[in-house]
Amino acid sequence: MESQINKLREKYWRGETSVEEEKDLKVLLNKQKEESPEKIFFKELEERKQEQGKIEFTYPKNRNAFIWRVSSIAATIVIMIAFAIGYNNYEKPDPYEITNPQQAYEVSLQALRLVSSELNKGKAYSSRIEKINEVKNSINK
């Protein structure tokens, strides 16, 4: 029996045992009256397996994670707004832009004629005002 335990011990520590051989080694070690290092080792393993089922791990509530989530959402919103503004301000063609030089010349002439005609109307009114001022000055004398 002792030789069988020694063979299984050597095989176990080399990592060559099967699950069945490990069970056999545990049974043989439990039958022994003396405390061997392997017997203590297997007892400790069993105790830890039992304790492991009782342990509950809860993640602590982390304020940094909340701040991280909120800031990432805010950054996403800012990026979307910036994209929307940039997209709306993208170069839109000017509906009044004239690229043909001849057409530009014609439009300029029309604008100058309009300004000139309005100035001529202003001169007509100013001549009437001059007549009123002359009459007023003759009455005041």
Describe the structure.
The protein is mainly alpha-helical and 141 residues long. The protein has three domains: 2-54, no CATH class; 59-90; 100-141. Helices cover 78% and strands 0% of the residues. The chain has five helices and no strands. It has helices spanning 2-14, 19-31, 37-54, 63-88, 101-140. α1 packs across α2 (19-31). It is rod-shaped, with a radius of gyration of 51 Å. The model has no long low-confidence stretch (mean pLDDT 80).
What does this entry show, briefly?
This protein has 141 residues and is mostly helical.
What is Rg?
A: 51 Å
- Rounded mean pLDDT score: 80
Structural class: mainly alpha
Order of helices and strands: HHHHH
SS strand fraction: under 5%
| Count of separate DSSP helical elements | 5
Tally of strands: 0
Q: What's the main sheet like?
A: none
Shape: rod-shaped
Measured as a percent range, the helix fraction is: over 70%
Low-confidence stretches: none
End-to-end Cα distance, whole Å, is 152 Å
Helix and strand layout, with pairings?
Blueprint: H1 2-14, H2 19-31, H3 37-54, H4 63-88, H5 101-140
Key descriptive features of the protein:
3 domains; 5 helices; 141 residues; mainly alpha; rod-shaped
